């Protein structure tokens, strides 16, 4: 199995990328990695490894670059070369913590869509109180969506939950403003009817945003505009909650002593709220796995994203999506 990785993308690149790559190579003996980036910047953190190939690139797609323009003009960038490797078949999947828009545009134009997929979707696993987590999509690949788009998101999310997360019969929920069947706008009402009447998914109906962390569904689907706001809300709330806990525990000598006693529990809580432990955000609906790691990823988060991409390849997630979408189109 071969993965192509953008060594220059993200706030902590290239150090965190290289460290995550080296961790993954130690744990996954069947994995070969092609690392793309500026040789002189990667070199201080590199260690020789028989399954690591470093490919020098002169350019870098920066976070402030216009996505479409970056893909077209920066042809010798680490991100562009990484995507080219997947397109040409010299890599099975790719991963970047860099510019999200550029990665999505590059994935669409270079890797290409699965036949029958109307619009790709960005998906990630978010935390739940019980630690199980749930898959949510679309998280911003498409700000607007038609009912048939969201139905395809549900089909692809169901496959991922089965193949990567190991859930035998995933519960699929539709994000809405109420749990009643009649709730929602024209879009959600139309999606509800299609999911209930025209798919064989384990559709559990509408789910509310306030219940997402209570593990009400294994897969939750919505349009990209709504999904991105929910993602940012969960991320912001988790960060704010940890900050408030830290402030409370640092308030006095007594609370500081309590913090020492609860150190392991607080560490576990922080890990439970950290969705990067589950990997990155995968772009569903493309001809090969394309994974977007969080921009602020540390080495552990990169390792988790590599594990995620490897699992997608190992379980032929893209091929299953292709055949399932083809069957649904034929019906």
Description:
With 331 residues, the protein is of the alpha/beta class. The chain has helices at 15-27, 39-42, 67-73, 78-88, 100-111, 147-163, 186-197, 224-249, 253-261, 263-273, 299-314, 317-330; strands at 2-6, 32-37, 52-56, 93-96, 121-126, 134-137, 171-175, 202-207, 219-221, 281-284, 290-292. It has an eleven-stranded mixed beta sheet with strand order 3-2-1-4-11-10-5-6-9-7-8, sandwiched between helices. The radius of gyration is 20 Å and the shape is globular. The model has no long low-confidence stretch (mean pLDDT 90).
The residue ranges in which pLDDT falls below 50 over 5 or more consecutive positions are none
- Distance between the first and last residues' Cα: 34 Å
CATH architecture of the largest domain: 3-Layer(aba) Sandwich
Structural class: alpha/beta
Q: Approximately what portion of the residues adopt beta-strand conformation? A: 15-25%
Lateral arrangement of strands in the main beta sheet: 3-2-1-4-11-10-5-6-9-7-8
Which H/E pattern describes the elements? EHEHEHHEHEEHEHEEHHHEEHH
What do we call the CATH homologous superfamily of the largest domain?
Isopropylmalate Dehydrogenase
The geometry reads as: globular
Quantity of strands, as a count: 11
Outline the biggest β-sheet.
11 strands, mixed
Rg calc: 20 Å
Family: Belongs to the PlsX family.
EC number: 2.3.1.274
Organism: Lysinibacillus antri
Catalytic activity: a fatty acyl-[ACP] + phosphate = an acyl phosphate + holo-[ACP]
């Amino acid at each position: 199995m071969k993965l192509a990785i953008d060594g220059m993308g993200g706030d902590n690149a290239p150090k965190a990328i290289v460290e995550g790559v080296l961790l993954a190579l130690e744990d996954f003996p069947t994995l070969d990695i092609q690392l793309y980036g500026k040789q002189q910047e990667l070199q201080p953190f590199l260690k020789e490894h028989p399954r690591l190939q470093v490919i020098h690139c002169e350019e870098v797609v920066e976070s402030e670059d216009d996505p479409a323009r970056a893909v077209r003009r920066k042809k010798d960038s680490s991100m562009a070369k990484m995507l080219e490797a997947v397109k040409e078949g010299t890599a099975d999947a790719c991963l970047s913590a860099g510019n999200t828009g550029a990665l999505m545009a590059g994935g669409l134009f270079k890797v290409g869509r699965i036949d029958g997929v109307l619009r790709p979707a960005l998906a990630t696993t978010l935390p739940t109180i019980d630690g199980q987590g749930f898959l949510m999509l679309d998280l911003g690949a498409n700000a607007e969506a038609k009912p048939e788009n969201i139905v395809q998101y549900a089909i692809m999310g169901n496959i991922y939950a089965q193949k990567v997360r190991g859930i035998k019969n995933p519960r699929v929920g539709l994000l809405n403003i109420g749990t009643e069947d009649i709730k929602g706008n024209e879009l959600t009402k139309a999606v509800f009817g299609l999911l209930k009447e025209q798919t064989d998914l384990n559709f559990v109906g509408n789910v509310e945003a306030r219940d997402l962390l209570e593990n009400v569904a294994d897969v939750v689907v919505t349009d990209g505009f709504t999904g991105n706001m929910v993602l940012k809300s969960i991320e912001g709330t988790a960060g704010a909650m940890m900050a408030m806990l830290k402030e409370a525990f640092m308030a006095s000598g007594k609370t500081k002593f309590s913090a020492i006693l609860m150190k392991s529990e607080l560490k576990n809580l922080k890990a439970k709220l950290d969705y990067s432990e589950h990997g990155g955000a995968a772009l569903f609906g493309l001809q090969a796995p394309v994974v977007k790691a969080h921009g602020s990823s540390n080495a552990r988060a990169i390792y988790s994203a590599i594990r995620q991409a490897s699992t997608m390849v190992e379980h032929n997630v893209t091929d299953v999506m292709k055949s399932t979408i083809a069957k649904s189109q034929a019906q």
